[in-house]
Amino acid sequence: MKVIKNINNNVAVCLDSTGAQVVAFGKGIGFGKPPYELSISKIQRTFYDIDPIYLKMIQNISPEMIELSAQIIDFARSKVSYLMNSSIVFTLADHLAFAVIRHKKNMHIEMPIYYDVKSLYEEEYEIGEYALKLIKQKFNITLSKEEITGIALHFINAAAMRKNKEEKKESFNVIKQIKGLIEEHFHIQISEDDFNYSRFVSHLQYLLKRGEQGTSITSENYKLYTSLKTNFPDVYECALKINEHLHTVFGFTFNEEELLYLMLHINRLCVREDCYR
Fold first, then answer.
1. Domain 2-48 belongs to what architecture?
2. Under a CB-based contact definition with an 8 Å cutoff, are residues 272 and 249 in contact?
3. pTM
4. Is 110 exposed, middle or buried (0-12, 13-18, 19+ CB in 10 A)?
5. pLDDT in tens, 207-245
6. What pLDDT digit, counting tens, does each position of 141-153 carry?
7. Residue 74, CB half-sphere, CA atoms under 13 Å: how many?
């Protein structure tokens, strides 16, 4: 294995024997000035097909949390049939890291859709349960059962957001326009290199796809929709602007459920971009 870039002391970007790029994890493998050869025996885990946008994020997550996330993904692959690329290991690790931070700060998040997820998405809920047990074992931290919902939604979203490069290219212009609407509404500059923007783009890709097919997400999340609409009026107003723009361009009109998920993604993006400063 040839190291071509060090991410930190324990993570490096390598080329395998076929020339394929791989992100490798192993204690102390990031020491040394690239390029250099690395013994396979020193590598604990490898991840292929990682979007470069996630490499910067890896630096801010502990190796222990990434390893825990990888164990959860291993378990998840035995429970769900849909394929997941390696990048989900890092997005899940980021999610779990924030869940632990919220716990330490005694920040409790209400999840009105907890019972909906438990009854409608049994496999994903079971993955969430497993994650909480593993966090308890590894870190001696007991997260609330509501965190199961957040973890389950992570996998539900991953399943719903699979797409190919051609679909991304077709909707490139309209996504740029939507990005501009958000930046203008909140007076911010959104970095396209941030992994949160990548997740937002993924959501928009599938939002547009459902619009083209004339289908919408349906569930009984009206209370959560009403709560977000009341507590985050700027996010709601921004979502309405996007909805109106898509109606003008494509003739799409999305229901409250679609607006709810759009608002959740806008809010997550805005929290990271510090819209509420």
1. Roll (2.30)
2. no
3. 0.54
4. exposed
5. 887 787 776 666 666 778 888 888 889 999 999 999 998
6. 998 888 898 888 8
7. 9
| Fold: same for 2-48 and 165-273 | no
**CATH 3.50.50.60 is right for the domain spanning 165-273:** no
Residue 4 has what DSSP assignment?
A: E
Decide the pairing of beta strands 2-8 and 45-48.
unpaired
The CATH T-level fold of domain 63-160 is PTS-regulatory domain, PRD (1.10.1790)
- In this structure, the chain runs to a length of 277
Q: What is the pLDDT of residue 248?
A: 87
pLDDT category, 140, cuts 50, 70, 90?
very high
| H-only helix segments in 41-171 | 55-58, 63-77, 87-104, 114-120, 122-139, 146-160, 165-170
Domain-wise residue ranges, the chain:
2-48, 63-160, 165-273
Confidence of residue 259 (pLDDT cuts 50, 70, 90): confident
Rounded mean pLDDT of 125-142? Answer: 93
User: Strand runs (DSSP E) across 188-264, as ranges?
Assistant: none
Pick the closest to residue 99 from 76, 128, 123 (CA basis): 128
Angle CA(79)–CA(81)–CA(86) in degrees, nearest 5? 85
Q: What is the DSSP string of 128-152?
A: HHHHHHHHHHHH-----THHHHHHH
> In terms of pLDDT, which residue wins out, 161 or 33?
33
Residue with tokens 């490499």: 55
Per-residue confidence (pLDDT) for residue 84, from 0 to 100: 65
205 — phi, psi (to 5°)?
-55, -45
